[in-house]
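Proteins fold reproducibly. Look at a concrete instance:
___
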Amino acid sequence: MRHVIALDVGGTGMKAALAGPGGELLHQDRRPTGRDRGPEAVVESILEFAADLGALGTRRFGTPPAAAGVAVPGIVDDARGLAVYAANLGWRDVPLRTLLSDRLGGVPVALGHDVRTGGLAEGRIGAGRGADRFLFVPLGTGIAGAIGIDGRVEGGAHGFAGEIGHVVVRPAGVPCPCGQRGCLERYASASAVGQAWAAATGDPAADAADCAKAVDSGDVRALRVWQEAVDALADGLVTALTLLDPRALIIGGGLAEAGETLFTPLREAVARRLTFQTPPSIVPAALGDTAGCRGAGLLAWDLLDRTEEAT
């Protein structure tokens, strides 16, 4: 059976799969990155994981993987196959595409940014299936975005397209590590909500999930913290949809796990802000933590298709 290797590399762990042509996962596995041993160890962990998957695929399906796809965090130059920079992994300018291809015996390898890769999967086979234009926004430690256009994800001229988390929604507001003040992710990410709720309760261990539970129970402090985050998120999303006119807004990440506790007030807040714009559907992501792997697999199949068309 024809298959590809799909790797989703995170800050502390890696998810990997053997993937079929429709994004189906034929085998799944997880391993730590080994980042405590330094960036070179992380790279070696990725290469070893891929090689082990390749050997397993060969045994199980009778043929070696036809290609590989890998999604990584940070700054990515997918055209040159470079993992340019990732603060949480400590690497700079890693020629990951070449290293992986060499370790796998010369198979074609596609490299992508983790959020855009997850967005590709959500748009093509997940919550955005059938939408020709979508915006995927995961709300986690920070906030990123992936702009989907006709089955592909737009990276931009320099690889930074979709960084909605650094749209300023509160001018002169909270400082952001990016150097600006008032960035969206300082108000509406899961970590920002957790910090605000911890401050409101005096419990340093409180997080966004705790805040959502308190909202459901009618806690006035939680309602105030939650609404401030929802309003900031709506401001950022309306800016994005005014520019991009997507058919669907797909919201994922840890904060989206609150379900309608998030989506009901968010839809209302976005609707209140619209004037001439056509409202998009606002839907939860469908693929969960498999989106990155599925997207990496789709990248590999897309690359394989292009390679075969060219020969």
Summary: The first helix runs from residue 39 to 61. The first strand starts at residue 4 and ends at 9.
